[in-house]
Amino acid sequence: MAEAHQAVAFQFTVTPDGIDLQLCHEALRQIYLSGLHSWKKRFIRFKNGMLTGVYPGSPGGFMVVVVSYMSYNKYNQLDPSLGLIAKLDSQKIVGGVLVGTGLWVTIIMIMRNVLKCLLSWHGWMHARHGSVSLSTRLWMLFVKVFSGRKPMLYSFQNSLPRLPVPSIKDTCSRYLESVRPLMDDEQYERMKGLTKDFEKNLGPRLQWYLKLKSWWASNYVSDWWEEYIYLRGRGPIMVNSNYYAMDFLYVFPTSIQAARAGNAIHAIMLYRRKLDRAQIKPIYLLANKVPLCSAQWERMFNTTRIPGLETDTLQHMNESKHIAVYHKGRFYKVWMFYDGRLLLPREIEQQMERILADPSEPMPGEEMLAALTAGDRTPWAKARETYFSRGKNKQSLDAIEKAAFFVTLDDTEQRYDTNNPVKSLDSYAKSLLHGKCYDRWFDKTFNLIVFKNGTMGLNAEHSWADAPIIGHLWEHVLSMDPVKLGYNEDGHCRGQTHPNLPGPQRLQWDIPSECTEVIQSSLTVARTLADDVDCHIIPFSDFGKGLIKRCRTSPDAFIQIALQLAHYRDKGKFCLTYEASMTRLFREGRTETVRSCTIETCAFVRTHHPTLTRVEERLKLLKVAAEKHQNMYRLAMTGEGIDRHLFCLYVVSKYLGEDSPFLKEVLSEPWRLSTSQTPLQQVELFDLVKHPEYVSSGGGFGPVADDGYGVSYIIVGENLINFHISSKHSSPETDSHRFGANIRQAMLDLLDLFQIDKKDMK
């Protein structure tokens, strides 16, 4: 093949007349352009690192401070340098620059610490929606003044406050309050005794160590959370940890698989370039005034979860110029750069077409190789060390693990079918969540999955970051694909193919029969898990957040209360409920739990029956429950949640070799209803008024408990809420479709209370 010859920069042969040296100028040119690209990237990273390191200062500010200082000193004959300039009489300019630099650094540190103090105040969260107090306005003004100009993605990292450690007393009190509706009097009194004993005896000792860590580490939770909740897990990460994101439901930009992959991959690489250059804007709350932590973006690309015998690790590469692609049992390495530039969408489509047209068969053991990433972690770690640590297997595995991300050209068709909406969406969700169990590389930070009919989606690994981070990338891709990049009338990407573009590199494997047995064993485990998942998706279009807001109720609180009502009708009982909130108001913050099954919500649910309670009374109870939920959400976001604190106390107790019956029981309680909202973060990218269909339909995850439900929901525009429900077929207590019907009815019932009370809302 021509590309194989071009890959060699020079050739030489020894003849009787001497050495015949033949240089390949094209190969040398590509080497030069590749090196030039790398050095440009290093320079940009260095420059951005400098700008971020001195933020909210700037090079312009440095010049102003130094020149102003030297001018002031010259005309006023003052020496704030305490004699430094006098000693450097022959080098007054150098002395002035040194002192000016010190003054500039001092100003930066003052601004940074003032901003950190300002961002530690969260009183603005308690204001009624739509109203801003005078104190909050003044606070916002000061935040703006001390935030500097033109911040980049990581500019605020050094100005964010540290996550505070709640008091033992507050955590224990809130814990008892959260479990009260789930226990009878005898159970509650027993748990109350365990809690009080812990609060008085072991708790303060563990708290001392935790406070010591909070003073020393950037975040007292995140490193332990990543290690013990994710990386030390020995079960499959497929279904249990990985989650998925869906394509548009009602828009089909092209039915050509290679073309859809071309635009999507190009859009993802453009996002990576913006990320490398720190050109992605920080995420804010409260009218773009309160910045959130951006640390989780650092490992989005070029990262893989590496299996270990006892714990996994995250391997991150600073640079990766290729992607890994899977199609019909074959793996490929595809370079993303040529002629010193990123491949254009039509050129990437050209590469995908070559893969799709490849008639070769998978090598022995190759087709189901990725099942190793879908099964238990320890067998995969042993197999990796035994069979993939040398030779061509190591080279091929490195090509996958060091790729920017992983792409699957799926040979099945998935799409929302209006003639069969339930079955088509359920099949689509299951395919994104686990596929065939051997056609996704579940260890990569994310897999781009492009189906045969042009529909696509993502499968993401969870340990490196939380769903809003990958959601930010996915919003960028969906906004770029059909509108900004677009397609020709025939469905192909815009632009031209490249006549000299080297083709994809087929990865080579030498997999022995012993390894094939391990692969089959992992596949058996994975298939058993996948076949047990019951997925159901509800595009709820009866109403959306627009009507809920007119009820003067938080949309999230409204949905969470509806979920509690639906669960009670579904199972006839309440359960410990997990709602994910974020703690990214703090440095390196990740998530906290909102225990949304509250005493107030249970009181409302129990009386929600037309024959038992008047409408006015039920509406009053609903508003009380919604306000309680909002308060709990605020506490979780501001570092006053209970579950991460209890988790870290448990970790400390294990390090100290202390056995705590209280912590052991708390950490073993199952979350039978696990919920999460997928936020729409970049509303400006989509015109949801004219084109409400041009937005992601959200994503979902597997059930956390064997006898429980997983529910993810996304509020799309003003009139649509998509629910993603999961459970297990093996549980006689659960049925995702039944629960979905209960959710729909509960949403309608809650709205009816307001419609009856407020006639003008029809």
UniProtKB/TrEMBL annotation:
Cellular component GO terms held in the UniProt record: mitochondrial outer membrane
Span of domain Carnitine O-palmitoyltransferase N-terminal: 1-47
This enzyme's EC code(s): 2.3.1.21
InterPro entries linked to this entry: Carn_acyl_trans, CAT-like_dom_sf, Cho/carn_acyl_trans, Cho/carn_acyl_trans_2, CPT_N
MF-aspect GO terms: carnitine O-palmitoyltransferase activity
Annotated Gene3D superfamilies: 6.10.250.1760, Chloramphenicol acetyltransferase-like domain (3.30.559.10), Choline/Carnitine o-acyltransferase, domain 2 (3.30.559.70)
Reactions mediated catalytically: (R)-carnitine + hexadecanoyl-CoA = O-hexadecanoyl-(R)-carnitine + CoA
Active site: 462 (proton acceptor)
GO biological process, any: carnitine metabolic process
A Pfam match: Carn_acyltransf
Record field: transmembrane: 50-72, 92-115
Main localization category: mitochondrion
The organism's place on the tree of life at top rank: Eukaryota
Pathway: Lipid metabolism; fatty acid beta-oxidation
Annotated ranges, domain Choline/carnitine acyltransferase: 163-745
Enzyme class: transferase
Keywords: Acyltransferase, Fatty acid metabolism, Lipid metabolism, Membrane, Mitochondrion, Transferase, Transmembrane, Transmembrane helix, Transport
Localization terms from the record: Mitochondrion outer membrane
Topology versus the membrane: Multi-pass membrane protein
Family: Belongs to the carnitine/choline acetyltransferase family.
Protein's name in the database: carnitine O-palmitoyltransferase
